[in-house]
Amino acid sequence: MKIHSKAAFSGLATITLIAGGCAKPPKPIVVGSENSTEQIVVGEIVAQHLEHALHRKVARRLGLGDESILYQAIVGGDVTLYPDYPAAIEAVILREHPDPNPDIVLDRARSELLRTAQLKLLDPLGYESTPVVAVKSADAHRAKVKTLSDAETAEFRWKLGVSYNFEQRAGGATALSAYAIPMEQGTRAMEPSQLFPALERGEVTMVASTAADGRLLSSEYTVLTDDRGVFPAYRACLLVRRGADPALGPALASLSGKLSTETVRKLTAAVDLDHRNPAEVAARFLAEAGL
Fold first, then answer.
1. Residue 200: DSSP 8-state
2. What is the b/e burial string over 259-283, where b = at least 16 CB atoms within 10 angstroms of the residue's CB?
3. How distant, in Å, are the alpha carbons of 37, 38, 50 from that of 120?
4. 188-199 burial, b if ≥16 CB within 10 A, otherwise e?
5. β-strand 160-163 against 188-190: which pairing, if any?
6. Residue 16 and residue 10: Cα distance in Å, rounded?
7. Cβ(29)–Cβ(56) under 8 Å?
8. What is the pLDDT along the chain (291 residues), one digit of tens a residue?
């Protein structure tokens, strides 16, 4: 009996070692983002938070590209998760016109992405990156404009600069065209980081930015109110591959609601205006937020 027991134990140990040796390592976690400062900083916050929570190295593909590029990357498995906006998903990926009600947009984007691509759209992070149109405060005062409707009737011809994303999205350039704003020249599309420098140099006199842009903290700029409500609300969420590490869900849930629009403005201002490294800005935010 002792011999048999010893043999059985030896066999069991061998099986255990083999099973342990065959265990698959956890899938790598790759955080992506679009190429705006806002998304790069938020992507870095997500990556560092996951490293702290899961005690694992997280890869970054920040500043990867626009909405379509990020979507292809997550569907193809090159990216595990990235910040996105239900309104942008509905307009660019689903090719639908977003409903004015952001809750309806969230439910629609969430159900369709899960059904068609096995992607999970998590609860909102707490801030908005809704399109806004800004001008120099001096020009707003001179032209006597406070709203986009004012810009239609003012005796002033504008030069508009927009990001490539804004130009392509249904909730961007097409929505803005609902206002018949007189233009001195054709719209100029450029990288998001080039918009305000172009405004400062006078190459454009009006820019389409987002509510999360840090430069809007300055009194030098005035946001013209979208008084007709043509821009859908761009509430930031995280889009995650359904087959990703199951530990991601609980870790990411603690970020929900932690980022206000004002907070993200300050974070992007720290990068764009104070020239601080996004990783440093993200680390400080997480420390102050107790994450």
1. H
2. bebebbbebbbbbbeeeeebbebbe
3. 24, 22, 17
4. bbbebebbbebb
5. parallel
6. 10
7. yes
8. 444 444 444 444 444 444 444 556 677 899 999 988 999 999 999 999 999 999 999 999 999 988 889 999 999 999 999 999 999 999 889 988 888 899 999 999 999 999 999 999 999 999 999 999 999 999 999 999 999 999 999 889 999 999 888 887 767 888 899 999 999 999 999 988 899 999 999 999 999 999 999 999 999 999 999 999 999 999 999 999 988 888 898 999 999 888 999 999 999 999 999 999 999 999 999 999 988
Residue type present at position 144: K
Amino acid identity at 179: Y
DSSP codes of every residue in 20-44: HHHPPPPPP-EEEEESSHHHHHHHH
Cβ neighbors of 13 (< 8 A, separation 6 or more) are none
Q: What is the DSSP letter of 78?
A: S
Residue type, 229: G
CB 83 within 8 A of CB 256: no
Q: Are 65 and 36 in contact (CB under 8 A)?
A: no
Secondary structure (3-state) at 163: strand
